[in-house]
Amino acid sequence: MNKPLRGLGSVRIIGGSLRRSRLLVPESPGLRPTPDRIRETLFNWLAPVLPGSRCLDLFAGTGVLGIEAVSRGAGEAIFLEHDARLVMTLRENLARLHIADANAQVIHTDAMDWLQRSSSRFDVIFVDPPYAAALWSRVLQRLGPWLAIGARVYVEWPKKLNLVIPHGLKPLRQVHAGDVSCVLLQTTWTPG
């Protein structure tokens, strides 16, 4: 059991090998770690495809989604984060949990810029950008080259907004919790 963390807030990993581990969470405007209940639902949905998968945590923030994925058997997680303080805290959390380098890599970058580069395929992508940036549609439009066959894309957005799902992705599951909507999408294309 972990000791309480001082000076910062924390969020806990709820399943897998790192269950009950706590992640440091610095105060940062717009930072909203995905709540336990939503994460439990999401990872129940992902259970059949998660073992050994390559995951991309766009707009990682605390990194709780990518770390939860590694805890539950993902083979690799790449974390993209623009805020230097969040990058530093995320790297500290990964090192403290002994998953730095082996299964996880943190990249200090703007996710939208990174998505314009040459691509690598991922099995699971988490899309939870800062709400103020309103990037959901733009991100989903750019994901095509990054998606493996049958890939899953998790998207979290304010319930009051409509999410436009681009051609090539179909909704598998959806949930609403308070003011938040969440959907798990899957690629619909096959290699030509």
Architecture overview:
The chain has one domain: Vaccinia Virus protein VP39 (Rossmann fold, 3-Layer(aba) Sandwich). The N terminus is likely disordered. It has 192 residues and is α/β, with parallel strands linked by helices. Strands 5-4-3-6-7-9-8 form a 7-stranded mixed sheet, sandwiched between helices. The protein has a two-stranded antiparallel sheet with strand order 1-2. Helices cover 22% and strands 31% of the residues.
| Spatial ordering of strands, largest sheet | 5-4-3-6-7-9-8
Shape: globular
Average pLDDT number: 86
Strand content: 25-35%
SSE topology string: EEHEHEHEHEHEEE
CATH topology: Rossmann fold
As a percent range, the share of helical residues equals 10-25%
Number of domains: 1
Low-pLDDT segments, ≥5 res: 1-7
CATH class: Alpha Beta
Quick one: biggest sheet? 7 strands, mixed
Fourth-tier CATH superfamily name: Vaccinia Virus protein VP39
Assigned CATH architecture: 3-Layer(aba) Sandwich
Number of helices: 5
Can you summarize this structure?
This protein is an alpha/beta fold and 192 residues long. The longest helix is centred in the middle third of the chain and has 13 residues, at 84-96. The protein contains five helices and nine strands.
